[in-house]
Each structure stands twice: as structure tokens, then as C-alpha cells.
Amino acid sequence: MSNLTSMTEFLLMGFSNTWELQVVHATFFLMIYLMALIGNLIIFTIISLDVHLHTPMYFFLKNLSFLDLCLISVTVPKSIVNSLSHNSSISYLGCVLQLFLVILFAGSEISILTVMSYDRYVAICQPLHYETIMIKGSCVKMAVASWFSGGVVGTMYSASTFSLPFCGSREIHQFFCDVPSLLRISCSEKHIVVYVSVAIGLGLGIFCCIYIITSYVHIFSTVLKIPTTQGRSKAFSTCLPHLIVFIVFIITGAMAYLKPPFDSNTVLDLLLSMFYTVVPPTLNPVIYSLRNKDMKTSINKLIAWKHSSEGLMKFFP
């Protein structure tokens, strides 16, 4: 039996063995990546520059945009290069790092989405106490805790997974290194350590899910009491997209990791992984900027600044 140290590289699976379809895949992924890159960079830049957006809600949105940008950058560019270069290999250390970063950013994103639901809960259900509860220090601590939780889970997942020996096939049935696909090519039948890590991550996800659902139950019950239609519409337009993104993110991620590791490899595995690593980073900029009045106003101000010699003073009052 080969020891894990003898495994110097893995082979990532492509979406097709046909060259023409590989080009189509690379082009499609490149378009998605550019959309996510530009959208999240715009949000991050606008929030950083416009002092009117230096509020708790946009502070967490800024963190979310950065996480989205990092999450999609860990997987998609490598997949594009592999499709166009006829080389699907990834080094052992590269696979370790990729798995760690994917879990780090995905776990941190779940935590940030949970914190964002708390921010909306306080803003809508306890508006008179919002400024005293969501002070800058508290917001920073919650963001740091979100990143830390993602880092802890990422360390556990990568350490436990790569403590297993790998022998035989080097082909990972996925376009990036993830735990279920790596377990399938492990020559160890005992995955207790990995299952413990998955259980801890699952526990964190369940806690976040319950907390978000509870928050939105209170939010929606409060919103329905708002007398004006315009007020209800504004509150729902802010909260519903957030809830939809979280549901897609958490369900697809849970399906991918709770699926028995020794099931046959199917296209469903690739589609599920796309939904929790590619779709949210691409859709979040659209949901949070194009439909957001404050963000559109800031973008217009930035555009006006480019055509005005006094734009800097207008943008930084």
C-alpha cells in the first residue's frame, strides 16, 4: 500500500474529454469569473470609498464581497487553466491548500450571512437600540469571529482528510479538491477523524441555519405590522434576497457533503459543487447592488466623479 507521502499530485476531473466542450467550459467559467470579479470588486470599492456606506450592514456586505471574491478565485481559475492546457494535475500541497481555502471562505461566508441576519433583526425589530448594539467594535468582533470559525473548520477538514493514505487512482471526480471526492480515492476504510470534522462543520451550519430562520421569523412578523406598503416592500426587498442566497448556499453544500462518499460519481456532484462555490459569488453582487438604492446612488456618484473636477469633494463630504 502506498503511503500518502508518495502521492505527489492529483488529477482533477474535467467536465468533458472533448476538446471543443473543454473550450466551451473554459469560456463559460471565464465569463462567470469575470462577472463575479468585477461585481464584487465594485461593491468592495464603493463601500470602502463612500463614507455614507460606512454602516454595519455595508461593513458586513463588504466582508461578504471579499469572501465571495476569494472563494471563486480558489477554484475557477485553476479549472479554466486545466481545461485549456490539457493538464488536469494539481500538486499534493496545492490540493491541501485549495481544500483549506475553500472550507475557510465557505465557512466564513456562512458565519457572515448569519451575522448579517442578526444585523437586519436588530435594525427592523429593535430600531431604537440599533446604534447602541451595532457599534463599530462589536461589528469588527463579529467579523473576526466569522473569519476565525471558517479558519478553524478549514484546518480541521484539511488536516483530517490529508491524514489519510492515498493509493491507486489519483483522479479526483471534481473540478477542485473537496472532501467527498478525496475520500473516494483514499485507501483507508476508516474515516472517523474526517467524519468528526464534518460533524462539527455540520453542527456549525445547523446552528447558523436555525439562527437565521429564527431571525427572519421575527423580522417578517415585524415587517407585516408595518402600516405602509412602501415600508413593507423595502424591508422585504432587503431581507428576501439574503435569505434566498443562504438557502441555496447551505442546501447545496449540505447535499454535497452529506452524500455517501462511496456513491458512484455523477454529474450531480459537479453541479452541486458549482452551486455552492460559483453561483453565490456571482449572484451576490447583483442581489446586493443592482437592487439596492444606496449602492446605485454611490455608483452614480463615482461615475460623476470621473467627469467632474470637484468629484473628490462630493464623494468624500
From TrEMBL:
Chain coiled-coil ranges: none
InterPro entries xref list: GPCR_Rhodpsn, GPCR_Rhodpsn_7TM, Olfact_rcpt, Olfactory_GPCR
Entry protein name: Olfactory receptor
PANTHER family on file: OLFACTORY RECEPTOR
Classification via CDD domains: 7tmA_OR14-like
Membrane topology: Multi-pass membrane protein
GO molecular function, one term: olfactory receptor activity
Transmembrane segments: 23-47, 96-118, 139-159, 192-214, 235-258, 270-290
The family this protein is said to belong to: Belongs to the G-protein coupled receptor 1 family.
Keywords attached to this entry: Cell membrane, G-protein coupled receptor, Membrane, Olfaction, Receptor, Sensory transduction, Transducer, Transmembrane, Transmembrane helix
Localization of this protein: Cell membrane
Predominant location category: membrane
GO cellular component: plasma membrane
Protein's job: Odorant receptor.
